[in-house]
Amino acid sequence: MSETNTLAGPQRLLWRTAEVREVIDETPRVRSLFLSVTGWSCHRPGQHVDVRLTAEDGYQAQRSYSIASAPEAPQLAITVERIDDGEVSPYLTTEVRVGDRFEVRGPIGGYFVWTAALGGPLFLIAGGSGIAPLMAMLRYRAAVGSDVPALLLYSSRTFADIIYREELNQLAAASDGPSVVHTLTRQQPAGWTGPARRIDRDMLTEIGIAASAQPRVFVCGPTSLVEQTTQSLLALGHEANLIKTERFGPTGAPR
Amino acid sequence: MSPDESSLPAAPLDGNAVAGLLREVFIFDATSATLTCGGCGAIAQVGSARLYGGAMGAVLRCAHCDTAVLRIARTPMGLWLDMQGARSLMIAPNGAV
User: Fold this and answer.
1) Topology of domain A116-248, per CATH?
2) First vs last C-alpha separation in chain A
3) Portions of chain A given CATH number 2.40.30.10
4) Which of A247, A251, A255 to substitute to test the interface with B, most B CBs within 10 Å?
5) Over the stretch A127-184, which tens digit does the pLDDT of each residue have?
6) Residue B58 in contact with residue B66, Cβ under 8 Å?
7) Domain boundaries in chain B?
8) pTM check: above 0.80
9) Cβ contact (<8 Å) for B9 and A249?
């Protein structure tokens, strides 16, 4: 019976009303929304929510967004990149105001999840707004005081496109903080000394955590980045079952 | 994740992107469950399968042999689930969300 109870424990997945409490522009195209959701149950780092918007005529549009906040945070945060011809992201990134309400359901997914109990080292690889679920892991790691070694390799187009730049600096500067390495693929500021190309096998060899350390690897970003990075990691000897991926489709452009 | 702004992306996503739709059928998180492919016998978590489709319907294909292991679609008649391409689904005791 206990096993049955374990499986039956979660409730049905219900749509709940989220109220926007705070809006932060992260980059010119990316915005974080801090939400208050009545009846929300605690998530695990890496999980996502479904967001549903309903127009006055009843038309509904639904998208999934990674949760960017730690479970310990008082509000649920999502980070949204504007897709100009999208149905949902233009509203969430330009029109939405504090006090607005829409529907969410979740937390969803148990595959792309890291908790301290899983151990480490933790090797996080992000492209563009793919940083969001990995940020939840880093925020959680800091909130629970985990000293699991952690490395974030984060690919952005330009310096101005780096999401959470200041907070990542602060996390990295803390004792037991993660190592954070940025690569800028399109344009670099004067004096930039970091990598300036797409993530490739050489970069993973020079900067990454060696396969012999058996890191838990989480890769999130555009499909092309995820595909190429996964192939490189496998070639470098990382075990497939230690690599978790989350792709953004359908184009190769970072979102 | 902010996966597909189009309903049928040309490039596949990961199976975890369809976790919300699967939670309308299963009381547990199906993307954490372990699926044995009916085509080649490969054993993998549902979340690692290739996903084609979006919020209204999707096909999950085995990452090794491309067999359609799970089809799910919302229609006016109801929600369809077709798993004839899967040999088994194993849900760990801690597989709950």
Assistant:
1) Rossmann fold (3.40.50)
2) 45
3) 15-108
4) A247
5) 999 999 999 999 999 999 999 999 999 999 999 999 999 999 999 999 999 999 999 9
6) no
7) 13-90
8) yes
9) yes
